[in-house]
Amino acid sequence: MSVPDWGTTYAMNLHQLGIRQWLTIAICLGIGAVVLYVLIRGYLKRDKNFDVTSVSKKEPAAPQLTPSSSAHRARFASAIRSWIPLLKENSRDTTKWEEMLLKSDMGPKLSLEIVQELEKTDQTPSVFLKSKLESLLMGADSAGAPWKQNKPWVLFVVGVNGVGKTTTLVKLVNYLISQHRLSVGVVGADTFRKAAVEQLQRGVEQVGGSFFTLQGSEGSEGADPAAVVFDGLKRFQTMDAILVDTSGRLQNKKNLMEELKKMKRVAEKAQPGSPNDVWLIIDATLGQNAVDQGRAFHEAIGLTGLVLTKLDGLSRGGTVFQLYQELRTPIHFLGVGEAVSDLEPFKTHSFVEELFDPEAVNS
Predict the structure, then answer these.
(1) How much is the pTM?
(2) pLDDT confidence bin for 304, thresholds 50/70/90
(3) 3-class secondary-structure state, position 335
């Protein structure tokens, strides 16, 4: 008895199959492939370290702003971490409290005021300080949405290099587009740093904004900032909002402040009434230097608001209170991280409550 040739037999059987049988096989194979795909996808989703969406998306969508997380509360709370021993002791030692407040960048004037009031009150230090800090920021909350008052709403963004001006601008664009559905144009008038202009352009366009700067033989570097402002406002006059990135060089140079004043005059010619607002981007960890910067910009160009950055690394929170006491301009936003969505509208009560959040402090 000869051994059957299985290969030949199998081939003959396939040859004898009709169209209906072939169709049945194809359907079964298709169903099997779908089931296998669903099983693999479900398995990968269970792996927290594997992002399934990153495989299929070539360009991520602009991130959406999220509510304040416990991580942010922990960062804010670090501003009073050094106060914890005194608070636990219900200490009224004015010498210790003044020293601790000074180390927290409250400044001599505010520290003395707080200590003198603490000495007179019957409240516990914790209750008194929470109430006092909130009163120091009374009126700091932004009243409404300024971008609704004009179209286009023209905002000058000022601040020295290194405070997070570029990243904050991108966050603002993302916020206005994702949360308020506005069309936003950004004018890159800080033309003394070519790399910074290019970085800003990439960030703005990535979150859906439009960007303009003057281009010459050497690119944008060295272009007249005032000319950039004029042409940019004309280019974006049909937009809902126009954000102007102004010069970010040191604030103690008189000629640079004069340049800001010139840019403001030119903006008025290009778009009557503009700029509608001038916001200072400032590093909240700089202490007295931040206050000095704020004062200089306010005297030169007239600030209408503040955006405080680097609150994710805040260890001396008194700067926030000093700044507002000095400038009396609304605090519009807090920068609490590096992600484009890490920008939170400022609310006095929430800010102070988070400083004293026991879960955040102990995390």
Answers:
(1) 0.75
(2) very high
(3) strand
